[in-house]
Amino acid sequence: MFVPCERGGGGGCDFTGFALLMPAVSVGNVGQLAIDLVISTLRMTKVGYFYTDCLVPMVGNNPYATSNENSMELSINAEVYSLPSKKLVVLQIRSPFIKNKYRPFCQTLLSWVESCKCARVILLSSSHAYQRDDEQLLGTPLRYLLTPALEKAVEGRMQELNWKEMEKVAAYPGINDTEKVLHIPGGGITKLLFTESCSKGIQMAVLLKFCSEGDNIPDAFALVNYLNEWLQLIKSRVNTSSQWKIPSSWRLLFGNGLPPALF
């Protein structure tokens, strides 16, 4: 359930014609890190919270603090940010799901999407690199998926970008290689949310990257640059990491850097 905050200027949950950008809680937290870069770089305004019992409760300081004055503002596990000039609304998720709560969350989220009249949903996700099949090992580690409701509108654009669609894999490898299924190991809610959107006729795109656990900041930059190729959230002739503003919460994300004297 969406709860607007007073500082966001009200506006309820009417995001008519907006694109909803959100992460899956998946391997390496790549989607969440990429969302951090979008919110920080575009200086998006927090307009509310997504109240749900499907996520582990958490509270912390403002992850996008720019001064001592706003550094003590509190953030919780699911918050909503908006940028009307780009018709963009972002749901950031900061904690893992409670066991057996994937489906209730997806149902609540998609009901909210429909009630808010969002034009489309874009889900940023990731999948275990070590579980790729032979075909998925070829070329770029970035993939996309489109629901039938969105496919007609943007499939041509994906072909112009020379993007690779997420391949289906054999349901029973070595036994029956003709039956293919969508398999996104480590993708969290990605597959469920995508299939539910397909059945409900919701326009959804999934952008994901094959990766492994570790320092996943480079993966986040790769994924957000991939997103920017399509949406052009920031204008740049060449996608580079330097064009994105790193949020203050990343300062000690993977520990302190090595002392300069060692180089």
UniProtKB/TrEMBL annotation:
Descriptive protein name: Proteasome assembly chaperone 2
Assembly behavior: Forms a heterodimer with PSMG1. The PSMG1-PSMG2 heterodimer interacts directly with the PSMA5 and PSMA7 proteasome alpha subunits.
Assigned protein family: Belongs to the PSMG2 family.
Gene name of this polypeptide: Psmg2
Main location: nucleus
TM stretches of this protein: none
Function: Chaperone protein which promotes assembly of the 20S proteasome as part of a heterodimer with PSMG1. The PSMG1-PSMG2 heterodimer binds to the PSMA5 and PSMA7 proteasome subunits, promotes assembly of the proteasome alpha subunits into the heteroheptameric alpha ring and prevents alpha ring dimerization.
Compartments in which it is found: Nucleus
One BP annotation, GO: proteasome assembly
PANTHER family (UniProt xref): PROTEASOME ASSEMBLY CHAPERONE 2 (PTHR12970:SF1)
GO cellular component: cytosol; nucleus
Record's keyword terms, sorted: Chaperone, Nucleus, Phosphoprotein
SUPFAM superfamilies: Cgl1923-like
Keyword Flavoprotein included in the entry's annotation: no
Domain of life: Eukaryota
Database matches in InterPro entries: Proteasome_assmbl_chaperone_2, Proteasome_assmbl_chp_2_euk, PSMG2_sf
